[in-house]
Specification:
By secondary structure, this protein is α+β, with helices and mostly antiparallel strands. 16% of the residues lie in helices and 32% in strands. It folds into two domains: 99 residues, Immunoglobulin-like; 154 residues, no CATH class. It has six helices and 20 strands. The radius of gyration is 26 Å and the shape is elongated. It starts with a helix and ends with a strand.
Length: 315
């Protein structure tokens, strides 16, 4: 009896060892080459960024092509990945130059990076170089955060291409303080205001529910690339430090980086709500005027003003 139990125990151990030694099914079925990113956006004259290629099996002569070419001054290194061992990686570093992928106000044309080895399916990723005023993800870029990790895209903040509404109140009804008082974080302000008025038709909820797809359908159509998570911008996202709300110097904003440029993008005219509350009854407004006469004003929340939503590309 003891020998029989010992035999069963040894058989169980052997079975367990064999099971543990089997490679995982996901490894057996993995494609020969895997890309880290389907798209990559960089800031013109910004930091280098990296796309990683991983080989799940040995692959010979891994090369890439670009169409169209990157803007003049931008480049990729190394020239190819050569022969890759199973489990090996190759990092392609994109070095952005001073020119964006398209002129300000013109829809960005990404460079399609096509990667392939001998007898492997081709993989593609899209590379876009951005600057202020770039037309990207259905908006005009007015802020770029180049401090994101090198293996991710630059953070871009865009305003909608056109007004979302021309006559909308910040809030109508009982006077109530929402504590949405950030001068720079419109997304946080939007969350706070929406929490107080989740169903009211107002400037914040107009932005919070706005969606538009890559083909300009709003709301997004089923199956389309959809851009959501829009919000009502803070006062310092709308206008610069020289105005009344005491915005910090060098805060990226729509007036400086989109309106008061040679391009004058967005057709902004008149008073626009910010998400920055001043007190229970008033909020900050940005008044857009041709030339340099833009101004920040305090307005009662029930005034009917214009709305232009913004979003962050990494949201």
């Amino acid at each position: 009896m003891y020998k029989w139990l010992t035999f069963l125990w040894l058989l169980g151990v052997l079975t367990l060892e064999l099971a543990c030694s089997k490679p995982a099914a996901v490894q057996r079925n993995a494609p020969p080459l895997i890309l880290s990113l389907p798209t990559l956006a960089l800031k013109a004259n910004g930091f280098d960024r990296v796309i990683t290629i991983k080989a799940s099996t040995a692959v010979k002569h891994v090369k890439y092509t670009l169409a169209p070419a990157l803007p003049t001054g931008s480049r990729i290194s190394p020239a190819d990945c050569g022969d890759m061992k199973a489990g090996g990686t190759c990092e392609l570093t994109i070095h952005p130059g001073s020119k964006p992928s398209a002129a300000a106000g013109v829809a960005s044309k990404p460079s399609r990076l096509r990667i392939q080895g001998v007898n492997t399916p081709a993989l593609t990723t899209e590379v876009t170089i951005l600057a202020y005023g770039s037309y990207y993800q259905q908006g005009y870029v007015f802020a770029l955060n180049d401090s994101t990790p090198a293996h991710q895209s630059v953070g871009a903040t865009m305003m909608a291409l056109t007004d979302n509404h021309r006559q909308m109140a910040w809030h109508q009804g009982a006077i109530l303080a929402t504590k949405a008082m950030s001068l720079t974080n419109g997304a946080l302000n939007t969350l706070k205001i929406h929490a107080h008025y989740p169903t009211e038709l107002n400037a914040v909820n107009l932005c919070a529910t706005y969606t538009i797809d890559a083909s300009s359908h709003s709301p997004c159509q089923a199956g389309a690339v959809c851009y959501s998570h829009w919000y009502l911008p803070s006062i310092c996202e709308l206008g610069p430090a020289a105005e009344q709300a005491d915005c910090a110097q060098k805060t990226a904003n729509i007036v400086t980086n989109v309106v008061l440029t040679p391009y004058g993008l967005g057709d902004l005219s008149g008073a626009y709500w910010s998400s920055t509350e001043i007190n229970a009854g008033t909020a900050w407004v940005q008044n857009f005027v041709q030339g340099d006469a833009n101004a920040q004003l305090s307005m009662a929340k029930d005034f009917q003003l214009s709305v232009r939503c913004v979003r962050n590309s990494n949201s």
